[in-house]
Design goal:
Radius of gyration: 24 Å
Distance between the termini: 58 Å
Strand content: 35-45%
Number of domains: 3
Shape: globular
Helix content: 10-25%
Number of helices: 11
CATH architecture of the largest domain: 2-Layer Sandwich
CATH superfamily of the largest domain: PmbA/TldD superfamily
CATH topology of the largest domain: PmbA/TldD fold
CATH class of the largest domain: Alpha Beta
Largest sheet: 9 strands, mixed
Structural class: alpha+beta
């Protein structure tokens, strides 16, 4: 369904809900289509086309809330879902902290979110992209084995309406292409290296993906011995992004701040990182895969500075927790459609770049490590910020050159200490899912090498 018909359904849900006794009601509808071609063990293993319609409803009777979901985009199905939501609301207890649904505000103008070519893409095109990506990678480095990856094009249409007067519809599309690869070595195989591209058009930069992938595989074919102790560590955004997600990003969520589960509570305006570090939650960045005009409560997305020059500037809020704590929503509500739950979630985490290219930075390093990815970040402590991960792949830097892969290199510390140890931020941002940023250089990082 197109976004206008979805909006009609949402408006109908609001009007019907009020007639059925709701004191407040909201409805969100999404129609999505995905076309993808999977890569597995050196071949295109599957081609998929998926389409779905989803409608989530929350209905309130006073301060009691009930929710319901349907994947049938008709008025009859919506009214049946409303009945279930209202029955749930009558049976539940009051939430004394609930205030009201959000009211209308001006939405941002974001160009380039919709692309007709993406919306009309055929399976043959994504198969072509996946095949071309594999062929270029194999040609670019002898012995390279495409292990997994693929390409996908997603198009969505969404709408939202509530009894507070919000009525909004939008559409968007995005394309992905990525490849994880290994290569045989004398002692076995290299660590897997993964690289991918995100774009709002079909002009995916496969050359960049292949170059990034083959250069890293070439280094990883050689094995190097690391040394335990304090070291300079260069982290790819895939690596530090994982650590930030399970530590910093949990601490800047307004719900965790309100519950006393954030180490950053009461520290807005204080220095918590190196002055070189600026991190923004940017829900309106057209390059980001998580960019929308509104959040899942109909609140406009925005650009929220989280850390500026090392200083904590803001937490992230939705309308519920913002109302509870006397704060404005930052447009960070995210809905789990089938469960009917609305929760806080970051959009695009953007690390602001600085002056020098990563190649120039590495060329001047006497010794250190380049870490492209990590394992074990999910076991980090979100309240304290402590983490312990294994760099995979991790590469030794000696004399300004990448020497080879260091297997089992462990990196540990505290995320706030780590951010304070940033001594350089590279120039060219890399777009990955949920994060846009360049490599960051940290000094005096605790590393343990099995060698």
């Amino acid at each position: 369904m197109d976004e206008h018909r979805l909006l009609e359904l949402c408006r109908h849900a609001v009007a019907a809900g009020e007639r059925m006794g709701a004191t407040a009601v909201e409805a969100q509808a999404r129609s999505a289509s995905n076309v993808g071609a999977d890569i597995e063990q050196g071949q295109v293993s599957a081609v998929n086309r998926r389409a779905s319609d989803n409608i989530a409803i929350r209905a309130f009777i006073g301060r009691r809330m009930g929710s319901a979901f349907t994947n049938i985009a008709t008025r009859k199905a919506v009214e049946e879902a409303l009945g279930l939501a209202l029955s749930s609301a009558r049976a539940t207890t009051e939430d004394k902290d609930w205030v009201a649904l959000p009211e209308p505000k001006v939405y941002p103008e974001i160009r380039g979110l919709w692309n007709e070519d993406l919306a009309a893409v055929e399976p043959a095109k994504v198969v072509e992209i996946s095949g071309e990506l594999m062929a270029r990678a194999v040609e670019g480095e002898p012995g390279l084995i495409p292990a997994l990856g693929g390409s996908e094009v997603a198009a969505y249409r969404s709408a939202f309406a509530n009894s507070g007067g919000i009525a909004h519809a939008e559409r968007g599309s995005v394309a992905f292409a990525g490849l994880g690869a290994i290569a045989k070595t004398e002692g076995g195989v290299t660590p897997m290296v993964f690289s991918y591209e995100v774009d709002r058009t079909l002009e995916l930069d496969l050359d960049r993906v292949v170059s990034d992938l083959t250069e890293s595989i070439r280094v990883c074919k050689r094995t190097a011995e690391g040394e335990s102790g304090k070291s300079t560590v260069v982290m790819h955004p895939e690596a530090y992004g994982e650590i930030l997600y399970y530590t910093l990003q949990q601490s800047i969520r307004g719900d965790n701040v309100a519950r006393g589960k954030s180490k950053l509570e009461g520290k807005v305006g204080e220095k918590i990182a190196s002055e070189l570090v600026t991190i923004v939650d940017d829900g309106v960045n057209p390059r980001g895969a998580a960019t929308f005009i509104s959040d899942d409560e109909g609140v406009p997305r925005q650009r929220t500075p989280v850390i500026e020059g090392g200083v904590l500037r803001s937490f992230l809020w939705d309308s519920y927790w913002g109302n509870r704590m006397g704060k404005e929503s930052t447009g960070n509500a995210s809905r789990r459609m089938r469960q009917g739950l609305v929760e806080l979630s970051p959009t695009n985490t953007v690390v602001e770049p600085r002056r020098r290219e990563i190649g120039d930075i590495v060329s001047e390093m006497e010794t250190g490590y380049l870490i492209r990815g990590v394992q074990g970040a999910h076991s980090s402590n979100p309240e304290s910020g402590d983490f312990s991960v294994v760099g995979n792949p991790a590469m030794l830097i000696e004399g300004g050159e990448l020497v080879g892969a260091v297997h089992g290199l462990m990196v540990s510390g505290n995320v706030y200490e780590l951010l304070g140890q940033a001594v350089e931020v590279a120039r060219t941002p890399i777009t990955i899912q949920g994060l846009i940023g360049p490599e960051i250089v940290f000094e005096d990082v605790n590393v343990i090498s099995r060698g």
